[in-house]
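Cast an eye over my tokenised protein here and flag anything odd:

===
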Amino acid sequence: MGRRFDCSDAEQKAEGLNEATAAVRRGELVVLPTDTVYGIGADAFTQSAVTALLEAKGRGREMPPPVLVGTVRAANALVEDLGPYGQDLIDAFWPGPLTIVCKANRALSWDLGDTKGTVALRMPLHPIALDLLKETGPMAVSSANRSGSPAATTAQEAEDQLGESVAVYLDAGPTNDNTPSTILDLTTAVPRLLRAGAIPVEKLRGIVGYVATDG
């Protein structure tokens, strides 16, 4: 049975972060709060853990999870390069609800699924998430729900859907916003919006100029 920790209590928060860090290092799954919705996370470099994450959600390899980082330095280590706009976008919107898709560092030995050589990166604006990520390093994190079901905005909603597939639940109360992160593809000559989200396209255009949208 997954253990749940009330992060509004200082002692439980400290114990929960320690337990979650240990679980991630063992290749187990944890649920953590972010600035958008709750996420289910695993060590990005443990293939069995990433596979377990996809299975817990009911997803296949064709939908690889994004990677959350606790520092910009960690993000830089995961990509070939950020392109002409990546650093400016990071400076403007990280930590926060912007996911950028870049070409993954080919030297890394990891398997997130059928990524086509790319990685989706984000640094969340949530103290619990950042504390955990600074201990664990990069984590594969997807919304804490079964595929096709609503994203969890509380730890209880996550537990109701994911149950014993998760070792540790970090409960930080309801999330402030259930709007997903904006996803921007930086692997093409012109940045392309892959998912509209918490950061409006107009704000992105204020940094990069033109943004291609399917609309």
About this structure: The two ends are 45 Å apart (CA to CA). The CA atoms of residues 144 and 150 lie 9 Å apart. The first strand starts at residue 3 and ends at 6.
